[in-house]
Structures are given as C-alpha cells and as structure tokens.
Design a protein that fits this description.
One of its GO terms (molecular function) is ribosome binding. This protein is mainly beta. It contains 2 helices and 12 strands; from the N terminus they run βββββαβββββββα. A hairpin with a 4-residue loop joins strand 4 and strand 5.
C-alpha cells in the first residue's frame, strides 16, 4: 500500500493496560463510523505495515481503545506510540458539491469568486474551535476558515477550491507590520 492511496485516520497516543492494548486518536468527523474496523496500516519507519484489529472500543472525544492481533504485552505495544494510522482511500464515502476530505484538497488551486486565482492549498489545520485551510499566497501563508459561506465548492477534475474570502482577509496576512523606530517611543518620567 502506498501513501498516496491512503488517508490518515489518526495516530496511537499511548498504551492501555498491560495486555498490549493501545489508545488511538481518530482524526475524523464521525469516530463511531470506525467501530467495525478490521485492520489499519501503521506507519513504522516510513513504511505502511498492516495490523489486524482483534477488538476496538470507540470512546468519547475521538479516542478508541484498540487490541491488535499478536500484540500481547505492554512491551510489544510501546514502540507503536505516536505512530500514524492509515486506511485506503477506497474506504471513504464519495463526496460531492461543497463537501471534501481535507487530505484531498492539498495542492488544489484556490480561486476567489471576485479576486480570481490566489494560491495553492498547502495543508489543513484542525483546531478545537475552527478548522483552517492554509494557502500559499505570494510567499505568505494565509489561513482560510472552513465555513460554508467562505468555502463554496470543490472542483475535483480541475483541482480547484472555490472560495469567497471575507473582505480584508488577505491584507491581514500580507500587510507589513511596523514597529516604532529606536528612539521614537514616548518615554514616561
């Protein structure tokens, strides 16, 4: 299995107990969709290695306790901590219109409905309060909030993300910050 045929499901955060179970973070919108997972690919030293799941218990907060086959001790599970987990893209449901998976828009051209072509999507940051699409624009990183009023639609064939950026958003990232010159500050006595 190759990386470009997969999406990152999450990563292993720590061991759980002494019988080889691990806690994983599921970096997905609906963790409960993965309660019947049979196997995953674990990234080990730059390689995707298949691991079969004996038991998975999805918890609150995008976490799950997983028991892999043939991992029966804390010593065997410890090297897996911080390893990324991947699944084949074919496991994903097809999306259309304005819906998209974050991993699929990396490299897409960003086109604003008024300003035209702007830049390229470099990554997507998932935050607890707001997910942000990072775009390379004239040598600057511009963060675009993931919001239905801003991100209008995706054209998969043309690899274009259509947006309607709020007025002034680009200027926030492109204006030079000025600082008072030495000796120009007001001194208080």
């Amino acid at each position: 299995m190759q990386y470009n045929d997969c999406f990152q499901l999450g990563h292993i955060t720590r061991t759980h107990g002494t019988r080889g179970e691990v806690v994983i973070f599921l970096d997905v919108d609906f963790p409960e969709d993965y309660e019947e997972l049979d196997s995953v690919f674990v990234e080990i030293k730059g390689q995707l290695v298949p691991y079969f799941i004996k038991n998975i218990n999805v918890q609150k907060g995008s976490k799950a306790i997983v028991k892999f086959e043939d991992i029966n001790s804390i010593e065997a599970a410890t090297p897996l901590i911080n390893c990324a987990l991947f699944l084949p893209e074919e496991n994903l449901d097809d999306l259309d219109g304005s819906q998209f998976y974050y991993h699929e828009i990396i490299g897409f051209k960003v086109v604003d409905e008024k300003l035209g072509a702007l830049g390229t999507v470099t990554t997507v940051y998932t935050m607890s309060t707001q997910d942000l699409i990072a775009m390379s624009y004239n040598g600057n990183e511009v963060l675009i909030p993931v919001n239905d009023d801003i991100v209008l639609r995706v054209d998969r064939e043309q690899k274009i993300l259509h947006v309607a950026l709020p007025e002034g958003l680009l200027e926030v990232y492109t204006e030079e910050t000025t600082t008072p010159e030495d000796g120009q500050e007001d001194e208080q006595e």
